[in-house]
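Morning - 2-OXO-4-methylpentanoic acid inputs below, output right after.
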Amino acid sequence: DVPVVVEDVQRRSTTERAGVLADPGFGRHFTDHMFVARYQEGQGWYDARLTRYGPLPMDPGTAALHYAQSIFEGLKAYAQPDGSVATFRPEANAARFIRSAERLAMPPVPEEAFLAAVDALVDADRDWVPTGADQTLYLRPYQLASESFLGVRPAHEYLFLVIASPAGAYFPRGVHPVSVYVSEDYVRAAPGGTGDVKCAGNYAASLRPQQQASELGCDQVVYLDAVERRYIEELGGMNLFFVLGSGSDDGAAELVTPELSGTLLPGITRDSLITVARELGHRVTERKVSLEEWRQGVADGTVTETFACGTAAVITPVGEVKARTGDFTVGDGTPGTLTMRLREALLDIQHGRVADTHGWLHRV
Ligand code: PLP
Ligand code: COI
């Protein structure tokens, strides 16, 4: 139980902050504070403090820079109608952070310490939580091997940090359907690899396929399973859902999402939507979905909608699909009915516009 020292830092002016919050974009601006704690083998976590946001002194031999012993999380703080601020299911992020740490042989940050760090930062920078439609404060906890050592072994020193970034829509075009490219040259994760945790290396490896998608005019990459190259896994930073049947009839549509095969990230948005969709009366199935089933389903009208979901992207409809075996378009290229209904239902909970019946909101 490490006490958090809160330093008195110089804050940016109200005018400067208002300028940023008027059009924050995604991941471009950061708040006045950051949280930092250190770990030393034999001593454990120590020196937890909320300090001024700014550069980290770093030795060129820092292990994380060489071997990517580095993990992260992403969650959001939402302005509530009563003027308070709440984060969404931070305990789930804390639990996933621990799993990621264990996979990368790092000392885990205990759940209470994770929650205390996030709370301390949100509390200090609550003026940075934007109040515009669909705007939030995106929170980025991360942990890295800070020991200067070039041997390949788990480091003996680590940093745990939390930074915060006011955010508007992740995709510049908002809820406009995104186009996706099914990668057949690359895979995201293989059985026994790191696909089910949030480590930095997964995202480094996604950049070349992402570049390839951009060259073909697509927004995102769809990854297939590494073994058969047949089953849909997820996008580089979002999970996928398919709507079978008509989303305009209450309870008639079925939702299908790829099962947690061990090679895809167990998204907290994914998990929340499974619950919300069932409460709205829809059947939700977690199972394998092949590219062929998706294509056939779109062609014969059984797959009516497809959407991607994640903390940063919320829910984003998928429109055009490009694949070596042939391109196709889901629905008429406009956001699907159930996609938009689930999006509203989730945002209503997160922004406190409906009762939080699941205890998902964590008031700061
Ligand atoms: N899949 C990947 C690879 C991700 O990076 C993310 C984002 O965190 C997700 C899925 C969605 O997870 P969550 O809903 O917890 O943000
Ligand atoms: C998130 O949704 O929080 C993520 O971490 C995805 C990231 C690729 C922006």
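Note: The chain has nine helices and 18 strands.

O.
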